[in-house]
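Figure-free illustration: sequence to structure, shown twice.
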Amino acid sequence: MSKAVAALGQPDKTSRERFAEFLRIYASLNTRLAYATDLGIPLDWVPGYRPPDPTRRRGRSRRAQPSGLEWLPWCVNNGFTSFAEIRVEHVERWLAELAEAGYSDATRARMLSAVSAFYRKYLVREGLVEHNPVAMVDRAAQHLNRPNGTPSRTVLWSFEACRALLLAAYLLADRHRHGRRDRAMVEILIGTGVRAEELVGVNLDDYHRPEPGGPAALRVHGKGAKDRRVALAPPVADTVDAYLAERKPARVPARTGQVGARTREPLFITRTGARVHVSHVQAVLRRLCATFAPPADAPPPRARWLRELLASEQAAFIAAHLGPLRETIHPHSARHSYATHAKNRGAEPRQVQRDLGHSSLTTTEGYLHDAENLALSAAHDLSPALHRGWLPQR
């Protein structure tokens, strides 16, 4: 496909060069890969991407198998030779084909946003096209609109589920080779609301704790190359210190042109010294759920210590709250849970916005699952009065 795609470039540059320039707008490699996935850009075109070592055993692939309906291959397959040829009707036809292929509205909205960003942030600014065709798409007709402030569909972890995850990580911290590292990651994820990409992207010198036993701060590298500092409460900072006490120096290979330059050392590393991948964060959460709330057909654990642990009251509490999350748990839920529980415990929305690194309060409001307001709703008092005398009382 790469040769065919080159036809979409301008006379002075190929499409590969154009997409590389666009992706360099984003400092994070994970962000670049996300846009490349939604646009259908070959991964070897992504600046900074290094193919995985084929000799090493790997888990699930980061990228799903391309369907051919991503924006770039779709344009090629439909005979377009220039980005300037695209009109709003073409974009809507593409969205319709995605819907027919079974893509969800949320996925189509995300892919459409990627196309819009490519036009708005690169092609229009470079003078390669006159307008952004996505701007004229009727999102409501495409079922892609979500009103401002509408709560997200991301699953919210209850306050007790958050406590269960922290307790599970604590109980396994000294029973797993990387238990202390994983516990520190879970503590930061739940205790600060950072994104999984931000969590694995922090470096050793991003962590700062002025006094032992006191609070700490962590500099995270957010979207749009925006850094921010998040507070680590003493219990969270203690888990980071416990991990650092056993952490071995990372072996960070030098890249071409960087010999002699100062290399940022990742805070969370694998057994080989490489930076922990974002997929590992979800794997840790799933392992915690599966350990304390295994499927019904799972064989009993072989280790005696684990059998004894699972028979404890603490394990029963964890299983009760993590069992329903076992199949769907995702690290982004920690971000939504942080926002909701912080607000319900009295935090100002503006402070939650700063904690999460949102540029708009409206974005933060979309993270708030207002369970407390539902529980305190006047409907609970009104309904019994309306039904008194003819509906059996409970």
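We now fold a second protein in the same way, so the two outputs can be compared directly.
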Amino acid sequence: MTSLPPQPLSPLDGRYRAAVAPLADYLSEAGLNRARVEVEVEWIITLADRSLFGTTPLGDDDKTRLRALYVDFGADEIAWLAEKEAVTRHDVKAIEYLVRDRLDSLGLSGLAELTHFACTSEDINSASYALTVHRAVERVWLPALHRVIDALAALADAHRDAPMLSRTHGQPATPTTMGKELAVFVWRLRRVAAQVEGGEYLAKFSGATGTWSAHVAAAPDVDWPEVSRGFIEGLGIGFNPVTTQIESHDWQVELYDRIRHAGGILHNLATDVWTYISLGFFAQIPVAGATGSSTMPHKINPIRFENAEANLEISAGLLQTLSQTLVTSRLQRDLTDSTTQRNIGVALGHSLLALDNLTRGLGEISLSQHVLDADLDANWEVLAEAIQTVVRAEIAAGRSEITDPYALLKDLTRGRRVGAVELAEFVDGLDIGDDAKARLRALTPAGYTGLAARVVDLA
């Protein structure tokens, strides 16, 4: 058997490339290297702006030309780095050589020794990962999450008054509305989204073991912790001043746990909507030209929700592994985080793919109110809760001598189907006031939804 031409091993870079491509700008190897160049360049500018080691601040034109190294980072730089790393066997050292080479071509070779000055690789990496993950989450993942939330919120509002039989433990239960049930997911997801939006993205910039030792040896009179803080915060990320050789990654653990939490809620949404489709509560809108089954032409399979479910599970597994691995580093540094962090894009990619499927799936369903109505009409026994609660209120008000209303309703309804006629006869025979009887006689399963429609507005 002949070998295939070079192929992507991951489906994220093959079948699903279009759905996750925006993440590659930040969380691919090239995206990471572009951020590394950005950190190296901005560090040179920071040192020069402080006139350290005989330098003078760069003019605006020189800063613009220097920043073009990362602003215009592209195919030539990617190829250059691949060739150089094949020799150096060290990715960050290759970045340093790239910056030095470009300084020479820009006529700024006098700044060469400020490249990677007093830095350990993790200074560059921690800042680069903070930048790339922050940008990927803020510019790609969160907008995709909000598209799902917006689609859900629109459906919740549209179906706020659509009565539906609840199922607790899989059994008929107090009616609700479809809108209110979808609003539950809206509220949950908005809360977690706010937590993600409020998260920190931290970097360290304190040398080989977090002590600024080389910095102090070169310039003992400089307040290096404050220089580092100003530099890192100037990049738009937070500063961690107390570290080993590496930034401790706790912010990453917090972030990935929150994204995994969001994924768990989304997984719950996917399985619930799948179940509603199975029950016939939602009909799927046919997509022109699509095939539901290779052998059963009538089928429209809920593939968007199944795909989302599976990808959320893959994402959750990877995110949990990231959290477990990144929280620990032996003594002052080990390399377990290096290869682990290269999978951040894979973890977020599967989550992003799920979000894309959910957004599409939510746009391809329509409510079958007649199915919901039939389900409600077949389960009048769910009004037993209303009846026994009204009876209790009548007892408390001194208008009834009934001693155990719960047992009374239990005997009538438990494990039995009771229709409108039977319940009306039962209500007529109750020892309660006329007003209470009138309210109960007017009650139907479809009308027993309480404040469900108003709950939608609370989400």
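Summary for the second example: The first strand starts at residue 163 and ends at 168.
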